[in-house]
Design goal:
alpha/beta; 4-stranded parallel beta sheet; 3-stranded mixed beta sheet; 15 helices; 16 strands
Length: 498
């Protein structure tokens, strides 16, 4: 069968007019038959090979389903010469003939030279386009123009003049946020209180969301543009274009350029510079104060989970009848938290001692670990797999809602949307990885033997220490070597061993 590969990116479609339909139509003419299979990469950059259409084509060629590949020109395969040659060599080694509509490709020294020259020119053209776009943005910024609409709360973007104008309603909210944060009041205390106040008073965010998050308030408090000076050319995004094709560990991060490379543009002032500086000092003091308040160590931090709501349980200091105690709770007080928690709490002293005594009993009686594993492993795996699958579906649904909001043209900030989509995608990747690990462990027939081996290693580690001189870190290490998770129910606490 004949396969027709068509690719178009937004910029190329606008520049050349080689639409997907055009490429398919020309490919069918070249094939001389309509008995073809289409491989389409719509909106994908030619700088990368990890594209759905091309990936499926390569797979079908390898399996012998496709014996001839038709493409408009080498650019449709890839934008870089090296990638073009890689795909061409792969297709030929698997017995598929490669044909271009706009030029003849002969497997001769002359034909390969011409092919290579075209690929090199294409790669050079792409690099020049990118350089011209970057230079144009920098020059635009130097002329005092706003390079692009970053949907900054408090401003509207005048596209014709490339400048920001004040959105009076939003600007008043910005001023209110700064006022509430800097002056003692009974309305809203701290960033979380401000977020809750804005949410309760039905004030929409820039993208029209009903709930304000603490981090959104924090971003507003840290945005220098409100002083009348907006930094541009701040972020270095080179290499990030292909992140959607890369594995999480290979993604190129966005970095901050040196401050001397920033280009400042004048915008209408909403907050006086002195108030902005005052807020930055308060934020710095808040971070230092939070660090000092977090000095207490929690033995089971990161291990506890509520069986009712599924929330992790974190340590906190609470006051009861003029007496302070340390406890673990599943409550999430941050505005916008996906699950607020059911309110379950347990005193640190009580559960710390119970878990430590159980672990010591296992260490002193290693055979008991097998019974504990057999009793908990199957039920734990089934419940955890079900929970992770539900979280994945919720994350997918959330991403669809974000995309739908963006497409509804409600003035939603592109950067906010990208950031939220990035966070949702990363969460889904983490959950999917977790699901794969769980399913793999569920099928592992040697899990009981592995648990015994782990207990032996832990016992050796424990016996090397003086029981009477165990430090907090020693106890924490031992617990983490044995317990995968600790489930806290209404009347029972269940330790899930590895």
């Amino acid at each position: 069968m004949i396969g027709i590969l068509a690719r178009v990116s937004t910029e190329e479609q606008a520049r050349t007019g080689y639409s997907i339909d055009y490429q398919i139509r020309e490919g069918i003419k070249k094939a001389g038959t309509s008995d073809i299979k289409k491989y389409i990469d719509d909106g994908y950059s030619g700088e990368f090979l990890e594209r759905p259409g091309l990936t499926q084509l390569r797979k079908d060629v390898k399996e012998g389903l496709i014996t001839k590949v038709i493409c408009l020109d080498p650019d449709r395969l890839a934008r870089k010469l090296m990638l073009q040659l890689i795909v061409t060599d792969e297709l030929e080694k698997n017995g598929a003939e490669l044909v271009f509509v706009s030029s003849e490709y002969a497997k001769t020294p002359e034909g390969q030279l011409f092919y290579s020259m075209r690929g090199a020119i294409s790669e050079f053209e792409k690099a020049k386009i990118n350089e011209r776009m970057s230079s144009g943005r920098r020059e635009k910024a130097r002329k005092g123009k706003v390079v692009k609409n970053s949907f900054t709360y408090g401003y509207d973007y005048d596209k014709e003049k490339s400048e920001y104008v004040i959105n009076e309603a939003e600007a008043r909210v910005v001023q209110l946020i700064f006022e509430l944060f800097t002056k003692p009041n009974d309305i809203a205390k701290g960033m979380n209180g401000i977020a809750r106040y804005l949410t309760d008073n039905l004030i929409p965010t820039k993208r029209g969301a009903e709930v304000w998050h603490r981090n959104v308030v924090r971003q507003i408090l840290m945005k220098e543009a409100y002083t009348g000076r907006m930094p541009q050319n701040r972020w270095d995004t080179e290499g990030m274009l292909g992140n959607k094709y890369r594995a999480p560990e290979d993604k190129v991060p966005m970095t901050v350029r040196p401050k001397e490379e920033w280009i400042y543009v004048d915008v209408p002032q909403i907050i006086p510079p002195e108030k902005f500086e005052h807020v930055q000092k308060l934020l710095a003091e808040s971070r230092r104060r939070h660090t000092k308040e977090s000095m207490h160590q929690y033995l089971l931090s990161g291990l506890l989970r509520c069986t009712k709501c599924g929330n992790t349980m974190t340590g906190r200091k609470s006051k009861y009848w003029s007496k302070y105690i340390y406890e673990y709770t599943d409550k999430k007080n941050s505005v916008g938290a996906k699950e607020k928690g059911c309110g379950r709490k347990i005193a640190c002293a009580k559960i710390d001692e119970m878990v430590w005594d159980t672990i010591l009993n296992w260490l002193n009686n290693p055979d008991e670990i097998a019974a504990a594993v057999e009793e908990t492993q199957v039920a734990y795996m089934d419940n955890e797999i079900e929970r992770v699958e539900q979280d994945i579906e919720k994350t997918k649904a959330a991403r669809k809602r974000v995309i739908k909001l963006f497409s509804s043209d409600l003035g939603i900030g592109e950067e906010e949307i990208r950031e939220e989509l990035r966070e949702l995608s990363e969460r889904e990747e983490v959950l999917s990885k977790r699901l794969t690990e769980l399913q793999s462990k569920q099928e592992d027939e040697q899990r009981f033997e592995s648990s015994r081996n782990l207990m032996s290693e832990t016992l050796e580690y424990y016996l090397d220490l003086n029981p009477d001189e165990l430090t907090f870190e020693d106890k924490q290490n031992i617990i983490r070597m044995v317990a995968k998770e600790i489930l806290v129910g209404e009347d029972e606490v269940q330790i899930i061993p590895f």
